[in-house]
């Protein structure tokens, strides 16, 4: 079984085409799957969109009564997936803004089946591309990649911030069993980096597959506060450089 975790906050425009693409992709592959959507206190029609889609797709809706942020939504979704999954299942995390193509899931799942523990859809793997991302954001993202690869090298990893990943379910179960609530305790977008940093002390096989990031398909403004994310990233670097975790 493949569990797709989608944290969603005010994504009423992006979710319909994304869910349609997920459904079409899995109909073609015939792989069993479930979509775990965490509605993170949305104030638009996101929950109605999810409820309507659940009539035709295997969706499990989890709602936060108020907005708690990406990290908490991701934690809620991953904890639910861990409860549902068996060790041989695959847990996939994606963004809900329709910038990630669901067709890539099949390649990532195949890599897990071939022996990888974690597979990252990477902008920096050979063949990866970004379309429609503002120049400043591209420079910022690439710069952070260089910093993390230099200070916290992980074999096989170039893209530390990508939210599009596949995990062997057993690995995710082991991480939560080992770290408990602090496995995901960094706020905002830096939580994706910290997940990898906490995995460094384990003997895991991590690989990447090229990602075509379609930022031109994104509906609405980005939810990332760039200045805040920079501050959080710098704090994380200092914290992990002097931490045993």
Structure, briefly:
Helix content is 42%, strand content 18%. The protein has 245 residues and is an alpha/beta fold. The chain has a single domain, classed as Spore Coat Polysaccharide Biosynthesis Protein SpsA, Chain A (Alpha-Beta Complex).
How would you characterize the overall build of this protein?
The protein has 245 residues and is an alpha/beta fold. The protein has a single domain (2-241), classed as Spore Coat Polysaccharide Biosynthesis Protein SpsA, Chain A, CATH 3.90.550.10. The protein has helices spanning 15-29, 46-53, 70-84, 104-114, 135-151, 169-179, 190-199, 226-241; strands spanning 2-8, 33-40, 59-64, 90-93, 118-122, 129-131, 165-168, 206-210, 212-214. The strands form two sheets. Strands 3-2-1-4-7-5-8 form a seven-stranded mixed sheet, sandwiched between helices. A two-stranded parallel sheet has the order 6-9. Helix 2 (46-53) links the parallel strand 2 and strand 3 (59-64). Helix 3 (70-84) packs across helix 6 and helix 5 (135-151) runs parallel beside helix 8. The longest helix is centred in the middle third of the chain and has 17 residues, at 135-151. It is globular and about 50 Å long. The mean pLDDT is 89.
Structure annotation, total helices: 8
Number of domains: 1
Tell me the series of helices and strands, N- to C-terminal: EHEHEHEHEEHEHHEEH
Q: If you consult CATH, what is the topology?
A: Spore Coat Polysaccharide Biosynthesis Protein SpsA, Chain A
- Low-confidence runs of at least 5 consecutive residues: none
Q: Main β-sheet, in a few words?
A: 7 strands, mixed
The helix content is 40-55%
Can you say what the CATH homologous superfamily is?
Answer: Spore Coat Polysaccharide Biosynthesis Protein SpsA, Chain A
What percentage of amino acids are in beta strands? 15-25%
What structural class do the secondary elements suggest? alpha/beta
